Amino acid sequence: xxxxxxxxxxxxxxxxxxxxxxxxxxxxxxxxxxxxxxYWGTAPTxxxxxxxxxxxxxxxxxxxxxxxxxxxxxxxxxxxxxLKAPLDLVAHRTKYYKFLLLAxxxxxxIPTSKLTFVEGSSYQLTRDYNLDSxxxxxxxxxxxxxxxxxxxxxxxxxxxxSGLLYPGLQALDEQYLGVDFQFGGVDQRKIFTxxxxxxxxxxxxxxxxxxxxxxxxxxGGKMSAxxxxxxxxxxxxxxxxxxxxKSAFCEEGNVADNGVLSFVQAVLIPISQLRLERLQGxxxxxxxxxxxATGEQTPFTVEGAPEGSVFSIFRKEDYGGSLHYKTYDxxxxxxxxxxxxxxxxxxxxxxAIVKLLEPIxxxxxxxxxxxxxxxxxxxxxxxxxxxxxxxxxxxxPPPPGKGKNAKAGEGEDGGEVVEAAVEVxxxxxx
Length: 430
Fold this sequence. Notes:
Layout: H1 3-14, E1 19-21, H2 23-31, E2 37-42, H3 52-64, E3 68-73, H4 75-80, H5 87-108, E4 115-119, H6 127-137, H7 142-148, H8 161-176, E5 181-185, H9 189-198, E6 208-212, H10 238-246, H11 259-279, H12 287-290, E7 311-313, E8 323-325, H13 328-336, H14 342-365, H15 368-377, H16 414-429
Parallel strand pairs: 2-3, 2-5, 3-4, 5-6
Antiparallel strand pairs: 1-6, 7-8
């Protein structure tokens, strides 16, 4: 592979990342003409929210650069993470995640010929994996295990042993998935450095690690699936989306911990850039597959936006007219200087999210199988259990001469019984 081509792919793989550990190993693979292999893992616990777009738009860059991507649906990890979900629900949620992630990539027009899904339980229950887990347990201190999982494993007063196993299992995944690098949020950094330290001690290769920045939730702090006010579900209605964005924390002039502004930076502008690149014919390793995008494929701009604009904020002429941006920094500076009002920014972001989710929600509505899986994966917690139907009594007529309506003289000894009853009644009345 030509050096220029390798450099171009490396730029695509690493752009917009917060941190890269071991980037030289990825460069070496590209210079050899090989396709790097990576994995990104997600534990199918809560309902996935639009914060997932942050990772998925970056994975889109990997796929376009020819990287072989494995998405680990970490069902065993989901169960271990403080018992967030029982195993029967995890199985349904794993299927739900797969439906959703494929719909997202299709909506973005991302080639998926080099994308595979792997369920953790397909190899994490094998003899070799478990032996390696025991080997790790023999050399990892409790301090290191707890420190490694501090940012991702739920911290409770009486931590479970499963939380200490979590970082080691994630490290072993790199070996058993056969990848060159692992990708995740910067909150995974301690687990990544844990893997770099301990995998070589088991005789395995040290991998590279690529990290995205973390995007704040709508109410400030981390975007969490367990906090419905901090995130927007992929299936939320347009009215719900607008309502959540309207109530989001977005203080005028404040560019720190601003979930609305950060979402523009991490998701909307990268997708606009992706769409502009598609218009230029830059769709990735499989140009034909990359053209099969669903839904609207124009940048998040309004009519009259200058060429190269990636985000617009509509405003009436009475208020100065619409604003158009070619870079995030320009938008950030205008917001910091209070040239952009939070209400106008929120309106633009809400409408962009509604358009972004339209093709995904359409795919959901057209798939009976996906809708069935959704109900099984996330049953309504307020649904009343169905009342058990009472068994219907079946009338069985008594044999002849039996029962309350039997006539005297019918059946064996029937007449004698009646006569005896009459005699008793007479004696009691005298």
